[in-house]
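dumping this here before i forget
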Amino acid sequence: MENGLKIISTGKITPYKPSNLQLKEGDEVLIDVLGCQEKGIICELGGSDTDVEQNNQEIEPPEIIRKLNETDIKRYDGLKNQASGYITECMQRIVAHNLDMTILDAELSFDEKKLTFFFSAPGRVDFRSLVSDLASTFKKLIRLQQVGARDQARFLDGHGRCGQRYCCRSFLTGNLDEVTLEMARVQQLSHMGANRITGSCGKLECCLRYEIKPYQENLKNLPKIGDEVKIKEGKGVVVDLNILLNKVLVLLEEGNRVEVDWLK
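structure:
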């Protein structure tokens, strides 16, 4: 799949201008976006949340300046600390404007021209007056980026019921695509109930999406539950599947149950 660029300040994935750099998924890069130097991450281009602006020919794709070096990384960490120091003032302004929103994180561009605040809110927020107030206060271009429940968990960080750090925080670099109950059904998890397959964000767990491919591939070679089959032990009906191990549980005509390796 073609690589795209995730712009940290917007959370969106977009194509980028052709580059002579040897880039791979996960590389952190310094980019130029509409005159501001920012951080980006190389990731797959695609998914339901891919930046809708990529098809607008009037919008110029970002330019990759270089891969982040050690000096850039140290500077970025310093800018993150500086931006975090602005959150308290921003929250005070939010209270003054009587807006129902919570600041989760802040991002300052490499050239310090743009200050981005990421926030969550129960609905749409008219923050135009707040943006003007913040621009006057910080003397910078202000961007307020509302995020959904999945991205909110990514910002807050934590550990899932598996005991591991949230996947969205540890290694998922692209946009967080839709996860469906059909994915849980295919992986034989839907019977466990919503609470067992729901993440801390209140949405279906992301692992249901990125673990589904081996299930889909193996199912192509397995019979369906309810199919009549003939094995060496006799005729019977498929009553259960172990999809990952390619095993089939067969209820024989005489009443015995036999598990067989279907591909052997």
